[in-house]
Amino acid sequence: MTVTFPTGFLWGAATAAYQVEGAAREDGRTPSIWDTFSRTPGRVLGGDTGDTATGHYHRREEDVRLMAELGLGAYRFSVSWPRVQPTGRGPASRGGLDFYRALVDDLLARGIQPMLTLYHWDLPQELEDAGGWPARETAHRFADYALLVGEALGDRVGLWTTLNEPWCSAFLGYAAGVHAPGRTDDEAALRAAHHLNLAHGLGAQALRTVLPADARLSVALNPAAVRARTPAPGDLDAQRRVDALATRIFTEPMLRGAYPADLISDTEPITDWSFVRDGDTDIVKHPLDALGINYYAPTVVSAATDNRPDRSDGHGAGGRSPWPGAGRVAFHRPPGKRTAMDWAVDPTGLYDLLMRFTREAPGLPLIITENGAAYDDKPDADGAVHDPERIAYLHAHLDAVLRALGDGADVRGYFLWSLLDNFEWAYGYSKRFGAVYVDYATLARTPKSSARWYARVARTGRLTPS
User: Fold this and answer.
1) Residue 360 among known ligand-binding residues
2) Cβ proximity of 32 and 88 under 8 Å
3) 417 is in an annotated binding site
4) What is the DSSP letter of 409?
5) Most C-beta atoms within 10 A of its C-beta, which of 255, 380, 424, 443?
6) CA distances from 345 to 2, 12, 117, 397, 401 (A)
7) For residues 16 and 164, is the Cβ–Cβ distance under 8 A?
8) CA–CA separation, 394 and 271 (whole Å)
9) Whole-structure pTM value
10) Residues β-bridged to residue 366
């Protein structure tokens, strides 16, 4: 089997604004739902917030130099909506846009392609106060925001992503309540999912009016590699239900212009779907230039066998399910090694997803927009950070990408999650995903051994031994 990636394969790393930027109250930035959520006692482990994060807002040049030293060909970052459009309405903030202009210029000067994500979960709090994603108006506000960013950066950014993991925004934020804004309303979560889809379509339409013809648009989903525990009919039905809620609720309207009939049937006790208006799915089905896939671990399910189905679904949802309409589904721990997040290490799930979308969306290029692992990394006596487990993880998953390429998948790039250790949402600073270690007391950066290994792979295009 080949160990060489195609010429032109895009090697990158990814971050998200709230997780790395800090400067939460500077240059006119107003609170996002994650500012509010993280400052609410009991919501985030240790009471951590993103107020400082990794200080990327003030260490932009240092971080770009670090990317260049690591041989990255691309950097996927997100724009902070409340930094650019402080209330979610009206004109753009010049100071907010200037930061991203400078970031893009720095990247281009060092030969690093910027890949811009418009929404990575930091909805302006004022829009949440007006209804949030369950409100249709939020989708239209997103289109206005997309237009502002497109007008400002469209001449320099060639890779655009509308949304990151809308499943998390809808179902962890509005059903399970473990992500911002922390609501627990199944019907609101389904509304939010549709309005996120609508925002994707409206935002893509707005971008097309201002971007050059060669700019490429994508969305970054976290489709589930769902596996039935056994071939029993009940377990297969559990697999179908979770697949509908995790994946097809987004891919079917985006790629085919309609919601799955089984999804609507499964959720009839919760909603009549009257929030989907005529013409909505035509808007959602906006032509994509690539599909972004975020992958970490597979999901194993069965039919629940008692009145208390297992909620160990790998999303930190505890006792409140993020799966409306799947109340009789049990979730099970996959076998094998695990990361510090207690997620299974299983690269076959990534291979399966790449081949699935090769079949279901022929001709649509695929980009792995996130893949990585958290481990309990610590500096040694000399200050070096050795993380052989992460190297083994990355090697195994990149090997899965090579297998998919050999079997006909059109995979154009791979973005390691994450460039830096950072604020890991409800886990605060307790989990380290970065290829670069961050000392949160001093904000000093130290590339881990995995960063050096990944740099060699990126520079040579060859999968070297782990």
Assistant:
1) no
2) no
3) yes
4) -
5) 424
6) 23, 21, 27, 9, 15
7) yes
8) 41
9) 0.97
10) 291, 411
| Identity of residue 377 | D
Buried/exposed code over 213-242 (b: 16+ C-beta within 10 A; e: otherwise): eebbbbbbbbbbbbbbbeeeebbbbbbbbb
**Omega cis (within 30) before 449:** no
Query: Among all residues, which ones are annotated catalytic?
Result: 165, 370
Interval 227-236 mean pLDDT: 98
Instruction: Output the DSSP codes for 225-258.
Output: -EEESSSSHHHHHHHHHHHIIIIIHHHHHHHHSS
pLDDT in tens, 73-116: 999 999 999 999 999 999 999 999 999 999 999 999 999 999 99
DSSP state of 333: P
Any binding-site annotation on 164? yes
Q: Give the pLDDT confidence score for residue 466 in this predicted structure.
A: 66
The torsion angle over the Cα atoms of residues 92, 96, 99 and 100, rounded to 10 degrees, is -50
pLDDT of residue 313: 57
Domain extent listing, the chain:
10-225+246-294+339-460
- Alpha-carbon distance 66 to 426, whole Å? 27
| pLDDT, mean of residues 55-63 | 98
Whole-angstrom distance, CA of residue 55 vs CA of residue 25: 13
How far apart CA 341 and CA 343 sit, in angstroms, is: 5
| Number of other residues whose CB lies within 10 A of the CB of residue 395 | 19
**Cβ atoms within 10 Å of 363's Cβ, excluding its own:** 6
CA distance 317 to 305: 20
Please state the φ and ψ torsions of residue 131, each to the nearest 5 degrees: 135, -25
* Locus of tokens 């604004």: 17
Residue 160 is assigned to a ligand binding site: no
pLDDT digits (tens, 9 = 90+) for 341-380: 999 999 999 999 999 999 999 999 999 999 999 999 999 9
Q: Is 424 annotated as a binding residue?
A: yes
Q: How far apart are CA 440 and CA 53, in angstroms?
A: 8
10-225+246-294+339-460 belongs to which CATH class? alpha beta
Q: Which tens digits make up the pLDDT trace of 22-39?
A: 999 999 999 999 999 999
For residue 49, report the phi and psi dihedrals to the nearest 5 degrees.
-135, 170
Kindly report, residue by residue over 419-461, the tens digit of the pLDDT. 999 999 999 999 999 999 999 999 999 999 999 999 999 999 9
- The per-residue pLDDT for 350 is 98
> Which residues, including other chains, have CB under 8 Å from residue 434's CB and lie 6 or more apart?
418, 419, 420, 421, 422, 448
235 pLDDT above the threshold of 50? yes
